[in-house]
Amino acid sequence: LTKRVDVWAFGLMSYKLLYTLSVDKYEDLDKLLNEYRNDLTKISRLDRIIKACIQVNAFKRASMKAINNFWNKECDAFGYEEENFKNVKICEN
């Protein structure tokens, strides 16, 4: 196991707490998370942190350091958001 798995678990736990997730099958969870990742109406700071944690590609997931920096407003966006923002400080992993 790696730190990136821990980040995934943190994101999933945060999602579950925020949206009271109740899914029994992995296939349903996978579909739900894909919809969430692509939902452009869910853009609060917490939503953006969760989305940074649950990126399918482990190398695109934020580190806990990047999450902390984002929460403390030391950076403006995560790597997965880079295409959507110009002239902002990206949270480095």
UniProtKB/TrEMBL annotation:
This is Protein kinase domain-containing protein. It comes from Meloidogyne javanica.
